[in-house]
Design a protein that fits this description.
alpha+beta, Beta-Lactamase, 13 helices, 10 strands, 14% strand, elongated
């Protein structure tokens, strides 16, 4: 589909505006999310560090040892991703007695107090097991029983945390996860030390990112609507500008060109000169050029008209001369010159692989007798009658008069495919004339026909076919003379 220049400019402007808007939204999303992730990561790390220095490391160490002993001794280990597995219930039930101990209840209440005054959504402690790449839950500060994780339950460490399990003193820097159950969470783990300065477990906090991400999506939606609105206003202003400063002048020039084209050649022209375009740019310069061109064309139009008439006359004369040069003056069919050129074309066709043609030679009988007995006028009439008969029989092939009483036919296409039937028809017409007693002897026409078909094995040129056709014609002439009791020598 083709668009005019003005529409192309408008379309390009709209595409650029949409691309810029989309780019702005995408970049804003990336920047906003990076900033919020960094902010929440620092908050999570700070909260985890606060929890780590608040809890009693020695109590956590003692409780962690009990949990670890049960974990190691159990032969039914199932991680938290398989809570629907019946074996998971059997595994977690091994740790239920620990939840009834005073030390667990006391540590849980302590963590709940910390969770209440902190920004964290979840506060809990984890026992890292580097050799298994697992993190075992110790004490969970969750208030609701549905959210409470039983001691001993464990998660497989995220791959991004593997490098930190070799040195527990660094804890686990904040990392983000997205699960079906909790959505977006940022988790940070800080090391908890005992009185001897040894890392006994991790203090972990979870900060929910769901609300902030929802806020981000709402912000991006408002930003998108605002940017699209601004884009629409800019596009409308730009479209109006393009319409009046570019499209309208171009349309005026186009209409003037159409009017110029529709006027008669000899009419006065002032289509461009009457236009009022004052854009102060290339369009106004173009109008000036068109006005000057209009004047130049008006100056030259008379000379061009005269020249055209002279050329037309000369061309017609040349065509007439060419036609006369290739036409036989007596019969109106093609002459020897045209035949020679056709033979050259046939030789080129042979070289290019075109081999389907033949040549028929036809010679008028008794022309000298007719001229001597009835006069040359009757002889010419016989030549004309024979040429018409040949043209009527061989309708689909070019016919040439190549001598006083000799004719040649280049057999192609339909005539080539039906040569036998056409030869029979021609000879039947000749025989009918000979047997028709109502035709005066002076008006009778007799002719001999011989033809040859191109043979790629024996013929090297079109002239070879012509020679065989001429020989066959001569043999046919002798047979016709013998049949009438006439001498067979001569042609």
């Amino acid at each position: 589909m083709k668009f005019p220049p003005g529409r192309k400019i408008m379309l390009m402007m709209i595409i650029i505006a949409v691309v810029l808007t989309a780019t702005c939204i995408i970049v804003s999303d990336i920047v906003f999310r990076d900033i919020m992730n960094d902010e929440y990561a620092m908050t999570a790390d700070a909260n985890a560090a606060t929890v780590a220095v608040t809890v009693d490391g020695d109590k956590m160490e003692a409780f962690a040892q009990k949990v670890y002993d049960i974990y190691k001794a159990s032969d039914k280990k199932v991680d938290n991703t398989k809570t629907n597995d019946p074996v998971f219930d059997e595994y977690s039930e091994q740790f239920l007695p620990l939840m009834e101990t005073d030390e667990y209840i006391e540590m849980r209440e302590e963590l709940q107090k910390i969770q209440d005054v902190s920004e964290a959504d979840c506060v809990y402690t984890l026992l890292p097991v580097p050799e298994d790449k697992t993190l075992i839950y110790l004490v969970d500060a969750a208030i609701e029983d549905d959210d409470l994780v039983t001691p001993g339950c464990y998660d497989l460490a995220e791959e991004c945390c593997y490098k930190y399990l070799g040195d527990l003193s660094k804890g686990l820097p904040a990392f983000i996860t997205n699960t079906v159950e909790y959505g977006w969470l940022i988790t940070s783990c800080a090391p908890v030390y005992n009185s001897n300065g040894e890392v006994v477990c991790f203090a972990a906090v979870d900060l929910s990112m769901n609300e902030i991400y929802e806020t981000e999506r709402h912000f991006l939606y408002i930003l998108a609507v605002l940017l699209l609105g601004i884009t629409a206003v800019i596009c409308i202003i730009f479209i109006i500008f393009v319409k009046y400063k570019i499209v309208r002048p171009i349309n005026l020039l186009s209409e003037a060109a159409g009017q110029y084209r529709n006027k008669q050649v000899n009419d006065a022209h002032n289509e461009f000169g009457s236009l009022k375009i004052h854009t102060g740019d290339e369009l106004e310069i173009l109008l000036g050029s068109m006005v000057q061109m209009e004047k130049d064309i008006d100056n030259y139009i008379d000379n061009l008209t005269k020249t055209k008439a002279q050329l037309s006359t000369a061309r017609q004369h040349a065509d007439d001369m060419h036609e006369l040069a290739h036409m036989d003056s007596l019969t109106g069919i093609r002459n020897r010159l045209a035949y020679d050129k056709e033979m050259e074309r046939l030789d080129n066709d042979i070289e290019n692989g075109y081999l389907r043609f033949g040549i028929a030679m036809i010679d008028l009988n008794y022309l000298k007798y007719t001229n001597d007995t009835y006069g040359h006028k009757c002889g010419n009439a016989a030549i004309i009658k024979l040429s018409r008969m040949i043209c009527d029989v061989f309708k689909h092939s070019p016919v040439f008069r190549i001598g006083g009483d000799e004719f040649a036919v280049i057999l192609k296409n339909h005539d080539f495919d039906h040569i036998e039937q056409l030869v029979d028809e021609f000879e039947s017409r000749i025989d009918s004339i000979a047997d028709d007693t109502s035709i005066p002897p002076s008006d009778k026409v007799s002719a001999a026909l011989g033809y040859a078909i191109f043979n790629s094995e024996t013929d090297k040129s079109a002239d070879d076919v012509f020679k065989r056709a001429d020989t066959n014609m001569y043999e046919r002439k002798k047979a016709m003379k013998a049949a009438r009791g006439l001498p067979t020598n001569g042609r």
